[in-house]
Amino acid sequence: MANSRSWTQTWPCFVKLGVLNLVLVFKITALGDVSGSVTAENTCKNTNYQSFLPPPYQNMSQMICTPVWHTYELRYFQNGDTTTIILSAPYTIGWVGIGFSRDGMMVGSSAMVGWITKHGHANMKQFYLRGRKSSEVKIDKGELPLNNILRLVATNGAEIHMAFQLQMTTPFQKQPILLAFGSKYPQNHHLSKHEDKTAIVFDFSAGSTGPVSRELIQMRTNHGILAIIGWGLILPVGAIIARYFRHKDPLWFYLHAIIQFVGFTFGLGTVILGLQLYSKMQVHIPAHRGIGIFALVLSILQVLALFLRPNKDSKIRKFWNWYHSWFGRMALVFAAINIVLGMQAAGAGSDWKIGYGFVFGIMVVAAIVLEILAYLKRSEMRSLPPNFQLDPVGGATFPRGM
Q1: How confident is the model over 133-148, as a mean pLDDT?
Q2: Residue 138: which H helix or E strand, with range?
Q3: Per CATH, which fold does 49-212 belong to?
Q4: Looking at the domain 10-29+215-388, which fold is it?
Q5: Residue 85 contacts by C-beta under 8 Å, 6 or more apart in sequence?
Q6: 27/361 Cα distance (integer angstroms)
Q7: Beta strand 72-79 with 152-156: parallel, antiparallel or unpaired?
Q8: pLDDT per position as a tens digit, 259-297
Q9: Which of 5, 178, 277, 354 has its CA 20 to 30 A from that of 59?
Q10: pTM exceeds cut of 0.90
Q11: Closest CA relative to residue 164, chosen from 81, 68, 76, 51
């Protein structure tokens, strides 16, 4: 065990390392924040809608147009309780959709989807995205307050144009919008899986987009990467070292302290970037947000425990050991749950799930193997005659329970 003097000499190194790592993490979060402030250039193509759309969609003089994603353009006009929307997008075959969400996520949103059949017939339907499976996408269901004005889908050159009106009791302001397209025709009005998708926050009151989709996606990606590296990899490794390598004294202590401090800075960066995402998208995911903050509080208590560590011979040392070990386990368990919740909320693809599943599996297998080896070592030492039990104090360094 490291004595007080050696700890006094080395703790400034831990602080310096933590500061350097914080600088790295804050650079990542700052990158997300700066890039998120970029807005799309407000230039739209000069399309003559009078040539292929009937009233009330012909009068474009009062409509505001904003590029929203790739070459997608969103035109809209709010007059009293009526909101007129025209979405223009590149099109060859398949379908194009625009969804309206409460929290920027697909599940629970309502979408207008348009396509042209193989025989040249135009179709546009409202879909309710109740879940992620195709069977959970319900046709002619949803929460969009469509009025009785004809909804239109038309092609002009290599573009498709979807026009519809909403009868709003409260006009849109900042509204999370989903954009997606698929390359296959809907079969019996069942949508094929999208080829690509995005989410933006569109400000209907200002006539401009919020953070453009690519920047929001990058921020969300950075948030996930920091969470998996910090909470899913670094902190569990530090906990494993503290539990199973105490016989390597004092090396285990320094490794544990350094690794956990680095993991803490990654965890802190994860929460900071998550709060930035919340402020920009107003995403309502109370469980994910609350568990993330709770795990951060537990990790802060763990850092304080490092600096408030009592002497080895202190009477309160056993209470400190209990507090430090169990609070650490709680933080790791809640963090693992929250990573899964975050991937579900973000609609993460299979690569994210497989990647985190692999990391989580390695950590679990390593802990099980080391626990079995520690148990066998304790059993072997207990079976030896008293005269052959060397260094009983050293034997106590193996874990004796969870």
Answers
A1: 82
A2: strand 137-139
A3: Immunoglobulin-like (2.60.40)
A4: Four Helix Bundle (Hemerythrin (Met), subunit A) (1.20.120)
A5: 74, 75, 76, 98, 163, 164, 165, 166
A6: 30
A7: unpaired
A8: 999 999 999 999 998 888 777 665 567 888 899 999 999
A9: 178
A10: no
A11: 76
User: What are residue 74's DSSP bridge partners?
Assistant: 66, 87
292-300 own/partner pairs: CB under 8 Å, 24+ apart? 292/338, 294/334, 295/231, 295/267, 295/331, 295/334, 295/335, 295/338, 296/267, 296/268, 296/271, 298/327, 298/328, 298/330, 298/331, 298/334, 299/235, 299/264, 299/267, 299/268, 299/331, 300/264
Count of all residues that appear for the chain in the document: 402
The rounded distance, in Å, linking the Cα atoms of 375 and 358 is: 26
Q: Which amino acid, one-letter code, is at 127? A: F
Q: Are 74 and 85 in contact (CB under 8 A)?
A: yes
What residues contact residue 391 under an 8 Å CB cut-off, 6+ apart?
none
Ranges of each domain in the chain = 10-29+215-388, 49-212
Q: Which two tokens stand for residue 6?
A: 């050696």
Structure tokens at 346: 């973000």
Q: Which residues contact 399 (CB under 8 A, 6 or more apart)?
A: 243, 244, 371, 374
Tokens 């670094």 identify what position? 234
